[in-house]
Amino acid sequence: MDSIVQFENVGLRYGTGPEALSDLSFTLFSGQFYFLTGPSGAGKSSLLRLLYLAQRPSRGMIRLFDSDLVTLSRDRMPGFRRRIGVVFQDFRLVPHLSAFDNIALPLRIAGMRDADLATPVREILDWVGLSARGDALPATLSGGEQQRVAIARAVITRPDILVADEPTGNVDPEMAVKLLRLFEALNRMGTTIIVATHDIHLMTRIKRAQMMRLEGGRLFDPTGALRYPPKPSDLRGWEEDKG
Amino acid sequence: MLGAFFPTRHDRRLIPQARLTGPMPWVIAVMLFLTLLAAAAALALGSAADQINADLAGRATVQIVNADSDARQRQASAAEAVLRSDRAVAVVTRVSDAEVRSLLSPWLGSSALSDDIPLPSLIDVDFRRNASDATLGRLRDALAEAAPDARIDAHGQWLRPVFELIGTLRWLAIALVVLLALASIASVMLSARSSFAAHAETIDIMHLLGSTHQQIARLFQRRIALDAALGALIACLLAAPVLWLLGRAATRLDSGLVSAGSFGPFDWLLLATVPIAGIALAVVTARMTVLGALRKKL
Ligand SMILES: Nc1ncnc2c1ncn2[C@@H]1O[C@H](COP(=O)(O)OP(=O)(O)OP(=O)(O)O)[C@@H](O)[C@H]1O
Ligand SMILES: [Mg+2]
Description:
The complex is a heterodimer.
Chain A: E1 3-13, E2 19-29, E3 33-37, H1 44-51, E4 59-64, E5 67-68, H2 77-82, E6 84-87, H3 99-109, H4 114-127, H5 143-155, E7 161-165, H6 173-188, E8 192-196, H7 200-205, E9 210-215, E10 218-219, E11 226-227, H8 238-241
Helix pairs in contact in A: 3-4, 3-5
Chain B: H1 9-14, H2 24-57, E1 59-64, H3 69-85, E2 89-95, H4 97-108, E3 121-127, H5 133-146, E4 150-154, H6 155-158, H7 160-198, H8 200-208, H9 213-253, H10 265-294
Antiparallel strand pairs in B: 1-3, 1-4, 2-3
Helix pairs in contact in B: 2-7, 2-9, 2-10, 3-5, 7-10, 9-10
Bound molecules: adenosine-5'-triphosphate and magnesium ion (MG).
Magnesium ion is lined by residues 44-45, 89, 165 of chain A.
Domain ABC transporter (chain A): 5-240
GO molecular function (chain A): ATP binding
Main location (chain A): membrane
């Protein structure tokens, strides 16, 4: 198995505050499916931000696609970002672009012509059950619909890594399962998937997924990712933060 | 190349902006209109200075004032000989007494101009090149010896204050062009910054989706290019009739003394570069401003 992400003693501090992430050392392997859990404020979003290059670590070393991120030149960052699909916790749709154009945005950034992108965008709109809402602006969509647009935008380029921050927080259980199946299909085509979630039922749906648990900015199991299904001891503390 | 100027339909949706109702085209129009006037003034003053120089600086008049007609004639001939022998002098023309009389008659009345009123002798001198102070000094010395009553007046010297005034005005006009360019840069920077701030969220998203800084800068530079092109068009439409009227008025001023500066084809070409340079300046400024702001991002 090829490693695709490596963290070594990574710490992250916002401004002069306490460390939001401390002593993170783990390896993620190409083509795997990972869940990232932990109570609110544990640092899940922060860890994902490091992964999708929105943030530099305050200390430690991160390797991504076999390149050292600390010494990576700025010119190469956009190329790296295009290989990573992101579902943001707050969606971050462009408010004045239609659902269709929001989903097409990564393709346009990659230089695809309008004539070529209509088909894949329609296809993915269909997948997330929004084929009738392609022309709608984000403000006119429900929270769950916006979330599906955000997911469609993240997967449209078939990225090497998909990073999703609470991607099913706003949809009904049925849709959550459907979206998870989309992730699984993508995973089968080779995309490495990292999903931050509170939803333990979601986690049980993917049998081959591995679980990472953060608490207070540290990995619950410092040796790295846990195998699913977790041992009862791995789930210690789960009950406290599920609400 | 043209892609640098025309935002696609999608770009326009991505970074929406109130077209035309926004102040930018009008600010640019006013700036370019004023720049065109100042540049035209600089060019006109320059060509006026050249004209006056060509008309006058290369000429001088030698005047011999002596009540004794014989002595005057003798000195005039001697002065003529001195002038003819000087290498800086191209043409020497003795103004006949009859001509002098006709020149003076409007002031003195023809009846008063009998032979018993002494008239000065006049000699017109055309220099090969504009006469330097050294040349004039040399001639003055030579004349003092040959014709003690001769006085040489270089036409350019009477007009030196006028020359200096024209020169000052010309520099002022050039300084205005520079100041207007600086003010335009500042206003484009302000507009680009506020537009950048207004679209910070969109830019952030594009950045995270893998947009290069160049791609993002291009969005803004295309918008400002359209604004600037519109402003330039308005400025040209306003400036053309104004310049044409001014040019016509200047041509009417055309006296026997000086042919006032009017625009040649080269001047028009230079003026035509003003709006083009204005658009280019706006685009480059917007690009630099946005790239500068993006440099703060990871
Ligand atoms: N931009 C920021 N500036 C300062 N502190 C921040 C910032 N973002 C997060 N933090 C802090 O870092 C810690 C981890 O936050 P993070 O958002 O990563 O948690 P989380 O696990 O994603 O929580 P949740 O489940 O509620 O989304 C928190 O204490 C938070 O206050
Ligand atoms: Mg979070």
